[in-house]
């Protein structure tokens, strides 16, 4: 009799435990928020893409063939009916004090006002941001925005570098620009806006949702909700019509630990794009530095550098690297680029060239057109991401990317991005790398305010100047 009772008690306990476990797991799913998809039926597969750029007014580079970033972002807000989700590494749109010096700076303030007015139009603005809370985001929450903060220091000891928008889970923007008045005026930025592309937008929204759920978390969860799993990956592309031509695409994210089921990392995406190039790989980057440095020590980080060497030497693919030349450019950048370039001397079948994009220095010492690009274009694909090609970016920081491939077509998006690359490459601001000569990227040091603490911190607002 006694043992039968014991049995019942144990059975009841086991049941309780099972129910509890089930509840925990379903809670994870409940947190996965509202239904975002799509039983395959309403996955529109006819999408439009525009290349958006910010080119400062007094930089003599043509805007032809691309849309202005400001106009692009406003067009997204015009379309918004239900929700606007924004992630930006930092917020600094209020340019009141800068307007006199940089007339275009008011664009930042106009965008901020637009975002402040969304709630009144019945559109929900959701923002994820790194710490610490910014006054601008406090203002936006005062105007009805939902703002969530990620403590990246606790999560990965890195920073949030992601920069993208998802509008109505239908349209999206991804690119180099932060929500910063400088990105709409004096920096040279490039991004993509994809319209009417529900499935791809939902996949990017899932990355946004992942950040959304990490608010105030001190550690990265070991399991992720099913609702955060990737819809598409490097092995399972989204196939669709992009501007009337057949294309495939997927989104990628970083770092490795922010990786639900099936999500391709940025590094894997870049690897795939480099690997599938047949003729050329053109790269436009703010920083290129194959080092993984921490406070205590640095080591060589070969991942991307190694891929490029392999493409050059073993596959004879032509590589061009356009790197930003600015005050914060690490001096070793030149050594590493020179080392890549000398790999091909004097081999005929190998072609590698590096150039530096120097901004224009105005009379008052301010710089216009610091190149802030982060993309790679090959003969068949484009990758646009949020991270610089520096070791610690991929290891610790959060970012996202978009890969679009157009096999067999040469007049689509890749062709347009290549056109932009060529335009910049042949512009007066691109200076070739010369042997034994380190270019001076900080010619404006006499007037600029140095931020020594930020030298490697390519993403901070101060460093962007
Ligand atoms: C799919 O889209 C059509 C038209 O846009 C709409 O009428 C229909 O309700 C949608 N179906 C589902 C399952 O959402
Ligand atoms: C922008 O900054 C100025 C001061 O620099 C301040 O007076 C103004 O209220 C700010 N505007 C917004 C919308 O925050
Ligand atoms: C973020 O996490 C770090 C490390 O756990 C902690 O020291 C810091 O106080 C946290 N910041 C905030 C604002 O909670
Ligand atoms: C795609 O089509 C739109 C509208 O027709 C056009 O404005 C845009 O420039 C095209 N995009 C590309 C990359 O060609």
From TrEMBL:
InterPro entries with a match to the protein in the record: Diverse_PLD-related, PLDc_3, PLipase_D/transphosphatidylase
Gene3D superfamilies registered for this protein in UniProt: Endonuclease Chain A
Residue intervals of the PLD phosphodiesterase domain: 367-393
GO function term, MF aspect, one: catalytic activity
UniProt entry tagged with the keyword Signal: yes
Keyword Transferase: no
Natural source organism: Hemibagrus wyckioides
Segments of this protein annotated with the region Disordered: 439-465
Domain of life of the source: Eukaryota
SUPFAM superfamilies xrefs: Phospholipase D/nuclease
Organismal lineage: Eukaryota, Metazoa, Chordata, Craniata, Vertebrata
A UniProt-annotated Pfam family: PLDc_3
Keywords of the record: Signal
Membership in a protein family: Belongs to the phospholipase D family.
Signal sequence extent: 1-32
PROSITE patterns, alphabetized: PLD
Name of this chain's protein: PLD phosphodiesterase domain-containing protein
């Amino acid at each position: 009799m006694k043992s039968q009772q014991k049995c019942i008690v144990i059975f009841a306990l086991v049941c309780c435990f099972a129910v509890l476990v089930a509840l925990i797991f379903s809670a994870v799913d409940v947190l996965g928020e509202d239904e975002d998809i799509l039983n395959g039926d309403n996955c529109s597969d006819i999408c439009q893409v525009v290349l958006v750029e910010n080119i400062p007014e007094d930089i003599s580079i043509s805007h032809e063939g691309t849309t202005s970033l400001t106009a692009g972002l406003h067009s997204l807000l015009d379309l918004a009916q239900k929700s606007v989700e924004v992630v930006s590494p930092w917020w600094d749109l209020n340019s009141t004090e800068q307007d006199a010096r940089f007339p275009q700076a008011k664009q930042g303030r106009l965008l901020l006002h637009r975002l402040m007015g969304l709630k009144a139009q019945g559109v929900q603005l959701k923002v994820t941001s790194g710490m610490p809370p910014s006054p601008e985001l406090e203002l936006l929450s005062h105007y009805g925005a939902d703002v969530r903060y990620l403590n990246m220091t606790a999560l990965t000891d890195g920073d949030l570098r992601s920069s993208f928008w998802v509008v109505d889970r239908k349209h999206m923007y991804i690119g180099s620009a932060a929500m910063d008045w400088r990105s709409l005026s004096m920096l040279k930025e490039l991004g993509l806006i994809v319209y009417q592309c529900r499935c791809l937008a939902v996949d990017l929204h899932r990355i946004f949702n992942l950040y959304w759920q990490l608010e105030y978390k001190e550690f990265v969860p070991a399991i992720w909700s099913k609702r955060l799993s990737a819809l598409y990956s490097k092995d399972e592309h989204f196939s669709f019509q992009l501007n009337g031509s057949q294309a495939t695409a997927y989104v990628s994210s970083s770092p490795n630990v922010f990786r639900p089921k099936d999500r391709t990392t940025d590094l894997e995406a870049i690897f795939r794009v480099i690997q599938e190039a047949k003729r050329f790989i053109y790269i436009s980057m703010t920083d290129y530095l194959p080092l993984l440095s921490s406070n205590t020590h640095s080591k060589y980080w070969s991942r991307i550098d190694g891929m490029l060497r392999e493409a050059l030497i073993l596959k004879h693919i032509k590589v061009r690297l356009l790197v930003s030349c600015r005050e914060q450019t690490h001096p070793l950048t030149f050594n590493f680029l020179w080392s890549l370039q000398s790999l091909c001397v004097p081999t005929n079948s190998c072609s590698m060239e590096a150039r530096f994009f120097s901004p224009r220095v105005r009379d008052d010492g301010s710089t216009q057109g610091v190149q802030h690009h982060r993309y790679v274009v090959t003969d068949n694909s484009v990758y646009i991401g949020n991270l610089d090609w520096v070791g610690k970016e991929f290891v610790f920081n959060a970012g996202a990317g978009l890969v679009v491939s157009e096999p067999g077509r040469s007049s689509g998006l890749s062709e347009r991005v290549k056109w932009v690359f060529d335009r910049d490459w042949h512009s007066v601001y691109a200076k070739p790398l010369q042997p034994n000569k380190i270019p001076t990227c900080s010619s404006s040091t006499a007037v600029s305010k140095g931020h020594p603490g930020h030298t490697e911190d390519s993403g901070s607002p101060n460093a962007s100047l």
